[in-house]
Amino acid sequence: MAASQACSSIFFFNAERLGEAGMPALDACALCTKPLSRDSDIFMYRGDTPFCSEECRDEQMQVDAVHAGKAARRLRQYASGTEARRGHQESRKVSVVS
Questions:
Q1: Rounded CA gap, 74 and 96, in Å?
Q2: What positions does the domain FLZ-type occupy (predicted)?
Q3: Which residues neighbour 90 within 8 Å (Cβ) at sequence distance 6 or greater?
Q4: d(CA 26, CA 44)
């Protein structure tokens, strides 16, 4: 049993290190890549994404809103296309009574 516990703890500590993909470092602005100093304000967005100014953060928020709008439109188009196909398939089902 001790071997299985040791094995599971290996996976627990086998996570990505800070600064690698998946976890942005607090060294530079995520938009303009301006270096961030420890004594300056850092503007955060989505919990862990750093920006050097409110302007950079707001610009990223606007870009994200545009992408979210496009994704929502694609989802609506897909959903309406699936409904149209379903309706078309249902219209083909005809019962013939003699």
A1: 39
A2: 24-68
A3: none
A4: 10
Comparing CA positions, the residue from 67, 28, 64 lying closest to residue 46 is 64
Q: Which residue has the higher pLDDT, 6 or 92?
A: 92
Is 22's pLDDT higher than 50?
yes
Angle, alpha carbons 31-34-40 (nearest 5°):
110
For the entire predicted model, the pTM comes to 0.54
Element (H, E) at 50: strand 49-51
The better pLDDT of the pair 63, 3 is held by 63
Cα 70 to Cα 48: distance, rounded to the nearest angstrom: 24
Amino acid at 16: E
Q: What is the mean pLDDT of residues 12-28?
A: 58
Tokens 């994200």, residue located: 64
